Amino acid sequence: MITVILCAAGSGTRAKMPENKILCDLNGMPVLCHSLSAFLPFADEILVPCRSEDEARVRALLSPFPCARTVRGGATRAESVFHALQEAKGDIALIHDAARPFVAPEAIRRCIESVKVHKSGVCAVPVTDTVARVCDGAISDMPPRETLYALQTPQGFFTREIRSAYEKTFAEGRDDFTDDSGIYAAYVAPPRIVAGDRNNRKLTFPEDFAPAERVGFGTDTHAFEHQDEIDRGIARLNLNYIKLCGVTVLSDRAIKAHSDGDVAVHALMDALLSAIDERDIGYFFPDTDPAYRNADSMQLLARVMDMVRAKHFKVQNASLSVLCERPRLFPHIEAMRSNLRAALGCENVAVAAGTNEKLGYIGEGRGITVYATVLLSRA
Question: Topology of domain 213-378, per CATH?
Answer without folding.
Answer: 60s Ribosomal Protein L30; Chain: A; (3.30.1330)
